[in-house]
Write a structure and sequence with these properties.
Layout: H1 5-25, H2 31-54, H3 68-92, H4 108-124, H5 126-145, H6 151-168, E1 176-183, E2 186-193
Antiparallel strand pairs: 1-2
Helix pairs in contact: 1-2, 2-3, 2-4, 2-5, 3-4, 3-6, 4-5, 4-6, 5-6
Length: 194
């Protein structure tokens, strides 16, 4: 297990309750839109914090107190995703659907959520990765629903978050990771077992 069960359960309950509380805290004329937007705002931070924070509670080697290698991998993957996203935002200068500014492409919220989800999936396995991806998908939906991004902005952000992890993340011992492969002969999947 990637974390002690009580800590994992506590972290998931905290994340779900934090998102649920946004329904109460998000005021305004359109409560549904505000709730969805605010939930996406929280998840774009919560997923990478949960993923990166998990490295401090894992113990892949009994002689280590925390997953230092995992912390370094997370820092590289998230840093590469963040840097790429904001460089592309500057170069693309695409206007947002709501006209607020010209930093629509790619979606930083979606990149952050998918970078966290891809990290959790790649390092700790599918049992934690699939729920994380579901929350990341909701984050992408929240950006389009609230009028801050177009669908292609969200797709690009998700792609950057996932691709950066495919380069820098390796699974813990005993965990399976599926990686897409592309070469001149076609497409496929590569299975990596930690």
């Amino acid at each position: 297990m990637w974390m002690r069960r009580p800590l994992a359960v506590t972290a998931l309950f905290f994340l779900v309750s934090l998102v649920a509380q946004t329904a109460v805290l998000a005021g305004g004329d359109d409560g549904e839109s505000d709730w969805i937007r605010t939930s996406g705002d929280i998840l774009q931070i919560a997923l990478p914090v949960l993923g990166g924070g998990a490295t401090f509670f894992t113990n892949p080697d009994p002689d280590k107190t925390w997953d230092k290698e995992g912390t370094w991998m997370f820092a590289k993957a998230y840093g590469a995703a963040w840097g790429s996203t904001y460089l592309i935002k500057i170069l693309a200068a695409k206007a947002r659907p709501n006209g607020a500014n010209r930093t629509s492409f790619p979606s930083g919220h979606t990149m952050s959520a998918f970078a966290g989800a891809a990290w959790i999936d790649g390092r700790y396995g599918r049992s934690w990765g699939i729920p994380s991806y579901a929350l990341a998908l909701f984050t992408g939906y929240s950006r389009v629903h609230s009028g801050w991004h177009y669908q292609d902005d969200v797709l690009a952000g998700a792609s950057i978050g996932m691709i950066s992890n495919w380069f820098f993340t390796s699974p813990l011992p005993g965990k399976v990771q599926l990686l897409p492969t592309v070469n001149s002969g076609g497409y496929g999947l590569q299975v990596s077992i930690g």
